[in-house]
Amino acid sequence: MSDTPENIMMIGPSRAGKTSLLSVLRLASANCLHDNSRVEIDPVNDNAKQLFRKARDIVRTGNIVHEPTYSLLEYVFNLKCDVEKVVVKEVVEEEPGPFPWSKPKQVKRTVEVKVTVKKDFTLTVLDGKGGSVFGPPDEGDPAEYARQRAEYVNLARKSVALVICMNANDPSTTADFFTDLQQFLDDVRVGSTPCPFERVAIAVTQADRQVEQFGSSALDRLEALDPAQSAAETMGRHARDGLFKALRPQARQMVYAGWTSVYGFIELEGSVNFDATTGQMVIFRDDTAKWVDNWYPYGVVEPFLFACSGRVVKMHPLRHKI
Ligand SMILES: Nc1nc2c(ncn2[C@@H]2O[C@H](COP(=O)(O)OP(=O)(O)OP(=O)(O)O)[C@@H](O)[C@H]2O)c(=O)[nH]1
Ligand SMILES: [Mg+2]
Fold it and tell me: Relative to the CA of 22, which ligand 1 atom is closest?
């Protein structure tokens, strides 16, 4: 394992909730429901710093409304998390001598042991006008389209993991994106070499909307649903084929999906933390200074934890035979 940070890339169709997810990552990493895994997330560039500042206001005012992203912005974050590493250690063991009265012999042996180490990753997100570079050029400037697409391809070629955001509540935009994704993955591949990703994390966003009608059993209902099945159905067979064919054989075992909700659920009650009549979170600000303690986003850090370390928390395997 090298010490230079490895790169992770996030993509997804328009309005999937990419910017929302990114903006709350840092706050969420400090406040994850039922989760004892830790990911430390720090902004690296100014765009990332600004985005995190916005998140504070979002949770304070209960309004998660982002302007659609029009230009191509690059967000760079540093992600630290625990990864398991196998190290070879020399141990000295005692072996009995040939006779009961002989002194025991000291024998050196090498053994493989698993250790947990902190590892750094760079999460680079090109946050463009949702998924537009994945589709055919629109009426905009063709040179700009080509430049942006080349940036995405270059980043993908040096990324160890891919995070795909998709909104299962918007199947038509999502299906279009996945159809276009195949061409993109073909561009990322050099000749017949597979894409470099070792893991693919699929964040099935806006999960609260899947279960909002179930009142206090909303969270239980969500946890009984398989996000990988939902993702697979929304993508469709053709798109799954395209994604899996572009990956190395080992990476095909490392495609996992998880529900994410930036609004989250109300702790102890289990209902969705969103009021459709006001368009705001139900619980966002307390009169005390501990406003952020009352906000429990769901599953937003886990896809990034999986992308970095392969650790599976609330993520389900997405299997596909090609
Ligand atoms: N119900 C619900 N809505 C969400 C959630 N996350 C985002 N949204 C809403 O979804 C819409 C799109 O979110 P964005 O984060 O702007 O999506 P995007 O993928 O960055 O969109 P583009 O920049 O246009 O590509 C916004 O109106 C958000 O308020 C969520 O967890 N639950
Ligand atoms: Mg955006």
Answer: 15
Query: What confidence category does residue 131 fall into, taking pLDDT thresholds of 50, 70 and 90?
Result: low
Q: Is the CA virtual torsion 132, 134, 139, 145 positive or negative?
A: positive
pLDDT confidence band for 299 (50 / 70 / 90): very high
CA separation for the pair 177, 230 (Å, rounded):
16
Q: 75: domain CATH number? A: 3.40.50.300
Q: Is 181 contained in some domain? A: yes
Ligand 1: does its nearest atom lie under 6 Å from the Cβ of 16? yes
Taking the CA of 16 as reference, the closest ligand is 1
* Cβ of 15 less than 6 Å from ligand 1: yes
Residue with the bigger pLDDT between 193 and 58: it is 193
Q: Is 110 inside a domain boundary? A: no
Q: Which ligand is nearest to the CA of 205?
A: 1
Point out the ligand 1 atom lying closest to the alpha carbon of residue 127. Answer: 23
The amino acid at 266: I
pLDDT at 159: 92
